[in-house]
């Protein structure tokens, strides 16, 4: 054993948990951790805003399956990262945020950037605490990883005062080795009741949510659907768990399925605004509902359920498949497929449109045609991103990432930087709203400088369309304020920051621009002036 400073102890603990990248914006309070990371072979990736550093940690977890780590300095460094931590909490993503602080000896005396960050972070994290002394650094980091990954994953915040990081201590390892996160399987009696409902069902449907990402066996969805022939609707990070062409994969008829199914299985998806809170009108009031969630407190929240199972989506699917064996709801599957095909058929004309400016569905379709088998697609925006989610077909190991239910805009650069580092052999694509670009667009400088060839495709309609559409309908065109933008040349912004930019106004120019962007070895932006579309005219924005 040797004596090392506190920053080195932090880096050693992170390395024990398999961390090879940390994300940060520099600050004097946390420099010792950088120094320790250099000694331990951990890459320090810097951003232009602490919010992005937090989004990087969130995105890194989504791509790799293990918690991402961000380091932020005291005071405004911590307040800047709150949004990213809150986003990870609402989306159920494990991450560790380490915040700097002034020396403990100067606490409450007015030292630079002195504030109570632990209290600030408590509402948006699973655990928020100050590490009390240097000898307990590794113990607290080990606890942070356990807590971040247990049950429903989420963010953890550790405050580390400057004097703790600058002091010296022996570098011994804790006695407990890092361990895989515990994942609960379903109660056998509840599994049996759920299996009985499935066996008896004539019109069963399955909704599979983002919690599937944290399951050890994510491929179970495809094996399950091969044996249980019923409609499956996959959302969030579960997208791609079934190939787009699989007979049980549906995207455009969920509302009809919820209204007509006699048994509905909901995996890892709360009854929130995305599910209309489970209310009659959207949901068949006579349907039996089986809810499976990593958070036991979510079971039965907002609506009555018939079976509640506190468990891991993958494990419960395996248990249910073992109990049922197989199920063939061909009549129901065929009827809903007809409705699905009809809705997809309505999209076809816009996907194939050669009109100018390019139709947003056509733009998304052209991006989808260029994706490789490991590529990552990030949705950062409103209307254009929601269109992309329906149009771009994905299949694992391809990955879709969006902010989740907090609806945080500006996540794109952070998620993209993390994905590009975690999957350097693949291409990372941001499907961008023109409004969203403005939040963290300066990060393209950080990408260019650190040689991360991310592709950004902007659907530029000079508007916050998801909000403006309803605003105009409710208040009228002359009272629609704060939702109009200009056709700004964001492509030129990216070029000025060290990347390549392409401006597209004609459909004939779209394919060449996308090809050049995908082939670039620097960050690239394809800024497309898109036509208006009624594809999402009835969508709500609250």
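-> sequence recovered:
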């Amino acid at each position: 054993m040797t004596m090392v400073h506190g920053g080195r102890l932090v880096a050693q603990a992170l390395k024990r948990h398999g961390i090879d990248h940390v994300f940060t914006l520099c600050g004097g309070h946390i420099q010792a951790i950088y120094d320790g990371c250099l000694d331990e072979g951990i890459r320090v990736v810097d951003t232009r805003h602490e919010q992005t550093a937090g989004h990087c940690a969130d995105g890194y977890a989504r791509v790799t399956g293990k918690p991402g780590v961000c380091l932020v300095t005291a005071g405004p460094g911590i307040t800047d990262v709150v949004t990213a931590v809150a986003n990870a909490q609402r989306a159920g993503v494990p991450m560790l945020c380490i915040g700097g602080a002034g020396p403990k000896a100067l606490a409450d005396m007015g030292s630079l950037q002195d504030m109570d960050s632990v209290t600030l972070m408590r509402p948006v994290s699973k655990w928020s605490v100050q590490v009390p002394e240097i000898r307990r650094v590794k113990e607290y980091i080990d606890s942070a990883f356990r807590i971040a990954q247990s049950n429903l994953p989420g963010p953890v915040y550790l405050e580390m005062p400057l004097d703790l990081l600058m002091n010296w201590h022996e570098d011994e390892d804790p006695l407990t080795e890092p361990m895989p996160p515990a994942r609960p399987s379903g109660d056998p009696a509840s599994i049996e009741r759920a299996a009985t409902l499935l066996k008896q069902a004539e019109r069963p449907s399955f909704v599979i949510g983002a919690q599937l990402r944290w399951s050890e066996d994510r491929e179970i969805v495809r094996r399950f659907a091969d044996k249980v022939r019923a409609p499956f609707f996959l959302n969030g990070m579960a997208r791609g768990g079934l190939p787009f062409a699989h007979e049980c994969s549906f995207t455009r008829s969920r509302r009809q399925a919820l209204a007509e199914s006699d048994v509905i299985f909901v995996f890892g998806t709360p009854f929130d605004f995305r599910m209309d809170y489970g209310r009659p009108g959207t949901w068949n009031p006579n349907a039996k509902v089986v809810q499976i969630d990593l958070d036991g407190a979510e079971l039965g929240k907002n609506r009555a359920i018939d079976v509640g199972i506190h468990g891991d989506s993958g494990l419960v699917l395996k248990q249910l498949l073992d109990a049922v064996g197989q199920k063939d709801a061909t009549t129901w599957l065929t009827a809903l497929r007809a409705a699905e095909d009809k809705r997809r058929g309505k999209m076809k004309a816009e996907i194939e449109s050669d009109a100018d400016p390019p139709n947003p569905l056509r733009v998304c379709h052209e991006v989808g045609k260029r994706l490789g088998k490991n590529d990552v697609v990030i949705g950062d925006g409103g209307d254009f991103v929601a269109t992309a989610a329906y149009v771009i077909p994905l299949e694992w190991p391809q990955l879709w990432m969006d902010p989740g239910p907090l609806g945080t805009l500006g996540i794109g650069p952070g998620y993209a930087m993390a994905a590009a580092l975690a999957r350097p052999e693949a291409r990372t694509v941001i499907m961008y709203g023109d409004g969203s670009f403005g939040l963290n667009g300066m990060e393209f400088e950080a990408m260019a400088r650190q040689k991360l060839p991310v592709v950004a495709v902007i659907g530029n309609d000079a508007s916050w369309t998801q909000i403006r559409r309803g605003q105009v309908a409710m208040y009228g065109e002359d009272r629609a304020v704060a939702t109009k933008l200009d056709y700004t040349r964001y492509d030129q912004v990216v070029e000025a920051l060290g990347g390549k930019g392409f401006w597209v106004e004609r459909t004939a120019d779209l394919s060449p621009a996308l090809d050049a962007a995908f082939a670039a070895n620097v960050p690239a932006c394809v800024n497309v002036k898109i036509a208006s579309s009624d594809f999402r005219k009835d969508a709500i924005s609250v």
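The chain has a mean pLDDT of 95.
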